[in-house]
Amino acid sequence: MNLPLELDHERRRFLSRRWFFRECGVGLGSIALASLLGDKAYAAAKPAATRSVAGTTDPLAPKKGHFPGKAKSVIYLFMAGAPSQLELFDHKPTLAKYNGQPVPKDVLKGQTYAFIKPDSAIYAPEFKFARHGRSGAWISEALPELAGVADDITIVRSMTTDAFNHAPGQIFMNTGSQQFGRPSMGSWVTYGLGSQSQDLPGYVVMNSAGGLSGGAGNYGSGFLPSSYQGVLFRKGADPVLYLSNPAGMSSSLQRKTLDAVKDLNEQRLGVVGDPEIATRINAFEMAYRMQTSAPELMDISKESKETLEMYGAEPGKASFANNCLLARRLVERGVRFVQLFHEAWDHHSDVKGGVKGQAAITDKACAALVRDLKQRGLLDETLVVWGGEFGRTPQVEASAELGRSLGRDHHPQAFSMWFAGGGVKRGFSLGETDDFGFNVVKDKVHVHDLHATMLHLLGFDHEKLTFRFQGRDFRLTDVHGEIVKPMLV
What we know:
34% helix
C-alpha cells in the first residue's frame, strides 16, 4: 500500500532515528511504528484479529460485526455480460403488442445507449412466461430448474445502476465505484468478518467462461491490505498457482525454508510495522496448509451420485456446475465469500439463442445450489446472490456492419436479480418496471442499496464499516445506500 506523502516522509524520518538508537544499544526496538502512522495504521487494525498463525496475528481471524447477522457467508453468482431480464424474469406482454414498432417518445425520456439509437424498434421476448410455486413468481421457460425453487428465492425486478458499459458496470457492481482500485465487496466482507476457515482463503473466486471486462479489479482489495483480496482458483489439477512442490523439495526442507523466511519477515515487520508483511507471512502459511486442504476440496468425486447428478457436475472437469458444487463445499469449510464469475451473457445478437444456451449451462446448477444448501441446513446462514452488471434494452439491436441481429443493447435503467437464504424472504418478488420494461416505477433498488442490504444481512451498519485512506473514511456504499427492508425476513 502507498502511504500519503506526509506519512511516508514521517516513516522515513522515524526509521532513521530508530536505526540510530538500535545500533547505539539504547534498546528502543520495541517502539511501535503504528503509533506514528496515524489513521491508516489504526484503520487497518480496526476489526481486531485474535487468531494467531505461526506466531503472527492472522488478519483473517473471525471477527464480530456491529450486530448479529443472519448470514455467515456469501455465494455470489455473478452473471457477467448482463443477462436479459426480459427473457428471464420481467414479464412484459406489452412488448408483444408493440413488437416491431417505434418506442413511444414519452417512454424514452432522453435515454441513450451504447450501440443502438433510442428510437429503435420494440423487440418482444421469444420465451413464454408462467407463474411458479405458491408465490406465483413470474419466471420464463428458459429457467425450468429455477422455477422449481421459486418459493425459496426473492426476485428483485427493480434494480438500477449508474453504468452502461461492461468494465465500469462490473467494477461498480462489485466495488461500489466505477473507478478502478476500490476494494471489492468480498474484500470488505472479509476485512470486517474475517474467515472461519484456517486452511482456505477467506475470499475465493472461480471463473467458468470468458475473461472479465473489469478484470481482477472485480475481486481485488484496492487500498485494503492485500490479505483481503479474492484468491482465484484456476481450472485443472492445480487450483492455485505453485501450490505443488517442485521436484526435489521434501516436506521437511520446505518447512525449514518457510520457517527461515518467516523469521526474516517477522524481523522486518518489527522494524517497519507494514501490514503487508503480516499478509505475506500469513500467505506463506496458508499456502502450506492449502497443499493438503485444496486438493481435498477440489476432489468432488467423493460426493454422492445423487448430488453430482443434481448439479450436473462431473469430477475432473471444469464447469459452472462444478464451481457451484465447490461453492457449497467452500462455505461448509468456513470460507466467508465465494464468487463465481460466468462472463457469457453479452447478447448483442441472437439474444434468444444466447439466453437459451447460457441458461442450459447455469440454470440446473444454480437451482441445485439452493436445494443443496437448504437440505444441508446451510441456506439460512448463506446468502446466495445471482445477477449481472445491468440489464438489456426492450428495443432490438441490429447492425449489418457488426453482423448483429435480434439482439439487445445495454440497459442500466432496469434489470433483475434474485437472492436466496441468509435472511431474505422466500417466495417473494419486489419491484416493478413500466409496461415496456424501460424504467423502474416501484421499489427502485440501486447498486448502493444492494450493498447496504448485503452488509446488513452480514451484521454491519454499512455507514460504519470504513477504512481511512488518503485522509478520509471510505466505505463500500461510499455516501449512498439504503437497506431494502421489504426483502428481509
